[in-house]
């Protein structure tokens, strides 16, 4: 741990170099594209369920849609191993270029895929293939891009890695804005006929710019100066298994909170009887909070440490989630939904903006890409990919709208344990 601590506290002028801010832009563009596509699929879940997974029961169709969303997350650990290890062996730049290219291909497949009514079972099969490809790409994106950021300014890891989280906030805003505009401006027939495809084509416009920027980047200074390992996965499994376990546990609350925000439009429409426009508009607030306050939290985490913010957020999620949703369930209105999404957005940002720097503190530069990618995607696969399906199933089985809170509280308790373990075992700031 002494070597990790020394790397994170030695000041350098790296953040003053224009290359550092190019790294922020390139990483943020790719991450925003990845999350825009992921969140858009969830935001369009009701429409996609009807067009690609039609059944006589709407709940079953929605469950299948969220299951398809979740299946792609099984590809994330594989992407984490392949692309993450590729970044540790060859370099961050090469891995980032590959991940954004694969994400663009997956997005294009969804955008042009004919519906079930047009080509039958080939339609859902095509959607599954596209989601698997996106899952593989996303598996290597977070670790590679976050490592690329923190290695440009090792003594300000919290601030620079928080831009990853800010870009996810931007993605939430764009995906929710797309859902709100489409649901308010188009009829149901127009939305199902062609409207739902427009945001995916919009996402494709971002891809080439991100690809070009990443293709012309310089390698991260810290990685370029380090002795690269040819066996990053073997190194982690032989001597860094505890870091991997703690890292995965630390990601849980970030994952649960993000996918809670993503699920809220479906929850508001299906369980509270609110309009799609109102539900998407409330989600925009959570995304804006994440976008604007992530760098602030990241900066504060460099000064006061990562774990205080993560612990405070997890504990508040345990205490506040049930009362908030109970109040919203008995008083469903746009203003109340806005307040709940605002609270969730603040707690989510407090936790998530601190978390990437903690992960980068855990792993040395030689295995950082693989270690961060695996930690992140193991947790996302288990607690994120099937969040929508699990919550939908819990509500259906218990016939209780508040069953959503069981999932959130459980994730928060696990994250408290993992964060305390990181603080106690690794003595991280």
TrEMBL record:
Localization annotation: Cell membrane
SUPFAM superfamilies reported for this sequence: MFS general substrate transporter (SSF103473)
Keyword RNA-binding among record annotations: no
TM spans (from-to): 35-53, 59-83, 95-113, 159-182, 194-213, 244-266, 278-297, 309-328, 334-353, 374-396, 402-422
Bilayer disposition of the protein: Multi-pass membrane protein
Domain Major facilitator superfamily (MFS) profile: 23-427
Keyword annotations from UniProtKB, A to Z: Cell membrane, Membrane, Symport, Transmembrane, Transmembrane helix, Transport
Cell inner membrane as UniProt keyword: no
Family listed: Belongs to the major facilitator superfamily. Metabolite:H+ Symporter (MHS) family (TC 2.A.1.6) family.
Name of protein: Sugar (And other) transporter family protein
Organism field: Collimonas pratensis
């Amino acid at each position: 741990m002494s070597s990790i601590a020394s790397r994170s506290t030695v000041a350098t002028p790296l953040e003053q170099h224009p290359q550092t801010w190019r790294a922020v832009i390139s990483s943020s563009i790719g991450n925003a594209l990845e999350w825009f596509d992921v969140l858009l699929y969830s935001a369009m879940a009701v429409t996609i369920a009807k067009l690609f997974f039609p059944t006589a029961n709407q709940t079953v169709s929605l469950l299948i849609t969220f299951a398809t969303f979740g299946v792609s997350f099984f590809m994330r650990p594989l992407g984490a191993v392949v692309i993450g290890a590729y970044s540790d062996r060859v370099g961050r730049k090469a891995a980032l270029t590959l991940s954004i290219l694969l994400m663009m291909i997956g997005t294009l497949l969804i955008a042009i895929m004919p519906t079930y009514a047009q080509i039958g079972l080939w339609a859902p099969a095509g959607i599954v293939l596209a989601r698997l490809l996106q899952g593989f790409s996303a598996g290597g994106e977070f670790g590679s891009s976050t490592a690329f950021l923190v290695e440009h300014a090792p003594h300000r890891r919290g601030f620079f890695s928080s831009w990853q989280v800010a870009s996810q906030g931007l993605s939430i805003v764009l995906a929710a804005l797309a859902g709100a505009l489409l649901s308010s401006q188009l009829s149901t027939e127009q939305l199902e006929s062609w409207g739902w495809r427009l945001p995916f084509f919009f996402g494709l416009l971002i891809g080439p710019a991100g690809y070009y920027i990443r293709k012309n980047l310089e390698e991260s200074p810290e990685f370029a100066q380090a002795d690269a390992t040819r066996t990053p996965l073997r190194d982690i499994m032989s001597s860094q298994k505890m870091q991997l376990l703690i890292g995965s546990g630390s990601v849980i609350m970030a994952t649960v909170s993000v996918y809670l925000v993503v699920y809220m439009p479906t929850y508001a429409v299906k369980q509270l009887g609110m309009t799609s426009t109102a539900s998407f508009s409330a989600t925009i607030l959570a995304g804006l909070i994440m976008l604007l306050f992530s760098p602030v939290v990241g900066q504060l985490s460099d000064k006061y440490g990562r774990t205080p913010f993560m612990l405070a957020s997890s504990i508040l999620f345990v205490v506040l989630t049930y009362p908030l949703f109970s109040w919203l369930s008995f008083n469903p209105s746009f203003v109340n939904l806005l307040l709940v999404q605002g609270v969730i957005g603040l707690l989510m940002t407090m936790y998530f903006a601190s978390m990437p720097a903690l992960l980068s503190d855990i792993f040395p530069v030689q295995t950082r890409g693989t270690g961060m990618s695996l930690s992140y995607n193991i947790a996302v696969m288990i607690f994120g990919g099937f969040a929508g399906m699990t919550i939908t199933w819990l509500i259906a089985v218990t016939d209780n709208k508040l069953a959503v809170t069981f999932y959130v509280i459980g994730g928060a308790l696990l994250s408290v344990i993992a964060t305390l373990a990181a603080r106690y075992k690794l003595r991280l700031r």
